[in-house]
Amino acid sequence: MGECKRMPRLAGAVVVVAAACVIRVVEPFVVPAVPAQKGLSTRPRQCRAAAAGVQGDSVFARPVYDPCASVYGCTPPGPGDPVGATSQKLREDRGVIGVGVIGCGRIGRVHLETLSRASGARVVIVSNPTIDKAEEAARMFGVDAWTADAHDVIEHPDVEAVWICSPSNVHAEQIHACARAGKHVFCEKPLATTLSDTIAAIRAMERENLKLMTALQRRFDPSFQRVKAGILRGEIGDPIVVKLCSRDPAPPPASYVAGGGGIFTDMAIHDLDMARFLMASEPTEILASGLNCVSPDIRDLPGPEAYDTANMIVRFANGREALIDVCRQAPYGYDQRIEVLGTRGMLSTDNMFPTTANLYTRERVGFADHPFDFFMTRYRDAYAAETRAFVEALVDDRPVPVTGQDGLIALILAMAAGKSADEKRWVSFAEIIGAGPEALDHGGAWIHRARALLGKDIVSRADVSDAFKVIDRANSGRISAWELKEVLNRLGEYPSDAEVQNLVAVADLDNDGRISEKDFEDLFSAFIRQPS
């Protein structure tokens, strides 16, 4: 093991692993053989905070926030993540998660910053292959210890959860090491660079009953969540088309792009995931194209790595489509917008600006500033909310809102986009996982096939309970009609608003417009599917 450097002891512990996310060229898919293991407990391992009985409401000083904007079991923060009087009580109750961070590059430092502001977590140790970067990050964020060896983080006795922010090609190896060490994992996308390695990593964590969360931070953006909540509540009727735009201020260096799998896996994967997140249906196929317009230094790279611009049409099982355009250069700033047209209206988001000031002159009328020019500033609140969600899941022993399965599906979407651009044709997502013809026309079929590869081909009562708990953000044991729709979506069911109202009428025994967890489980079993 590498030598572990220490600073004077501070209260709390957190470990983060970070680095650029690079996806290597995907190998042919082979379903991994996973040996059966005996003697495992039936409940996920609890962190010390959960075992101490600390409840979610005492984990963070929660700012006032419109609950309609939250579709996950966590509260998105405001501009900061203030630590108030509840922080001291949490520490007295020993409800603080010891965290380790692997990787002290750009994304690792983003997570270190958010962890430093989260009262339910304490970074214990950080690692980076270049130890000077680890030491610099440790001193910057007041972390006790630093090392060049990721295994020092994973095996540290005070670390209960590991943030993996290292290069993509070592994610799977580090997830397996965390599983062997009994550590929960928060992993930057992708979980691995191939489907087989992704599946093996997810199953390794599940065998040990450990929590694994995929970092898809855009799902936690307050503006994007407000759009999602509006769709679920029927504010715009049924979605007709979803449009997403994602443009970076400037291209990355050719060294970052080379060997990374290309624009669909290192950039558009977020937009593909958001299209699935917003559309009340599962995707079935994709048509993608790629261009080289602004980066001549990558023009000779193989396949999608040569593209700096791409366009995608994603078709869903309900017949609707999403339109996505991405580009590595937008000189005016970081351009991130969403538009959802529905049968009764439209929801959209605009770019984020440093200030709300407007400038009026002879030459210019409009915003005084350009949009934020970097993902770390644009999505600062989303990263904070994402961190809160995982820490709350650990403290309260609740299911994580973005699972390993979500990470697997996002990788499948990106791989299909690359294949479509290369072969200049529509590509079904079922093709990527080798599903049969029956999965080609129905989005849910290939999703079920993906679940089967994870050993989850049958929806269990535990799956139903977990989906309910993720959406029951108040931990009240009851959800509303529009929340019911999101729970059903998470379980692969996409009812219309009228069907949801009919289900509520059946299950809402006290006629208050809300449904209990037990009533929902009974409803799902009797009227929708037969969980095992």
What does the model show?
This protein is an alpha/beta fold and about 525 residues long. It has helices spanning about 50, 85-90, 105-115, 130-140, 150-155, 170-180, 195-205, 220-230, 255, 265, 270-280, 375-380, 380-395, 405-425, 430, 445-455, 460-470, 480-490, 495-505, 515-530; strands at about 5, 15, 95-100, 120-125, 145, 160-165, 185-190, 210-215, 240-245, 285-290, 310-315, 320-325, 335-340, 345-350, 360, 365, 425-430, 480, 515. Strands 1, 2, 3, 4, 5, 6, 7 and 8 form an 8-stranded mixed beta sheet that branches. Helix 3 crosses helix 13 (about 380-395), helix 6 packs parallel to helix 7 (about 195-205) and helix 7 (about 195-205) runs antiparallel to helix 14.
Low-confidence stretches: 7-46, 48-94
Assembly classification = single chain
Helix content estimate: 25-40%
Let me know the average pLDDT: 78
- Please report which band the strand proportion falls in: under 5%, 5-15%, 15-25%, 25-35%, 35-45% or over 45%: 15-25%
- Total helical segments: 20
Shape: globular
Amino- and carboxy-terminal Cα gap: 45 Å
**Main β-sheet description:** 8 strands, mixed
Structural class call reads alpha/beta
The radius of gyration is: 22 Å
Number of strands: 19
